[in-house]
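re: ur question from yesterday

yeah so i grabbed the chain u mentioned. its 366 aa long if i counted rite. heres the sequnce exactly as i have it in my notes:
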Amino acid sequence: MNTEFDTRMMRRCLELAEKGMGRTAPNPLVGSVIVSGEEIVAEGYHRSAGKPHAERMALRRAGTGARGATLYVNLEPCSHTGRTPPCADAVIEAGISRVVAAMRDPDPRVRGRGIARLRRAGVRVEVGLLARRARRLNEVFVHNVTTGSAFFSLKLAQTLDGKIAAGPGVRTRISGRESLRLVHRLRAAHGAVMVGVGTVLADDPLLNVRGIRSAPRPVRVVLDPGLRTPPRCKLAAGAGRFPTLVIYDPGRAEDSSRAALAAAGVELAALAAAGDGLFDIRAVGELLYGRGITSVLAEGGRGVATSLLRGGLVQRLHLFIAPVVLGEGAALQGIGDIGRQGGALSLRDVEQRLIGDDFYLTARLD
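ran it thru and got these structure tokens back, copy pasting raw so excuse formatting
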């Protein structure tokens, strides 16, 4: 039976784990706390892939203070050798007597083996404390290791009547400043930020992370079958500082456009488009995951959002609704035909709150 103190310590693990947001992929976000009696001996969190795991960091800081202590961790200690040795072995060697883990590791290389190894060594192991919160924190990692594919988040900013712009190709600011700050945090939490070329032509966006010290630099991805991205746009101009990838169809692109973008430092990836001139969105996902991009925040526009929803690739929705009405006429609806044939697309695990004057909703779609 877990105590109130156990719950507080697990919350601390989750807080620590979140510090690695946007930096640990393809590894999970993990925090760890070592406690003797009810005194915290040491803490640690996984800072980035290739760096020590949270348990090892905490154990190293605890030293001999770990003997007989309780280890709290939001994910089962690993039992396999990757870039670092198994954490389960380090826990046993340190003399930890009890481990409280929020959830089992879904990675096929672990999946209960770490817990089994600890128990065989006489360590008392308890699993499941704040499991739902732990799974939410590591939803990208869970999706990656169980499906072998990238995790797609879709961000939509719209008016009360569901419009995303005053008209096709018209740059229209909808969200308030507070919402925009949250969008930058969302970008920092993903491996890539993706838009269609229509958004580049209409808005000339930067798509980088701003307002966060030492922020991660997600790859800026443009879906551009005909390679219409201007060589002098902001994305191309900043390609030397922020990784930028344009996916194009070699059969629809001019050599001069390829040369100009490449000269600006833009990376180009070839992918055949379908007969309608659009990419198979699943093929896009496979291309990005093959490049080590484990999570993608799709920010627009209408075509990208519709393709992702129609293809069933969206795992999480981030919806910002501003207290604005654009009405009928040329105003552009945020989502087109997603092929549901009258059936509704249901959301689950809905979270919602006000951010400034905007209404923010996030939910799972899979």
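noticed a couple things. The mean pLDDT is 92. also The longest strand covers residues 151-158.
anyway ttyl
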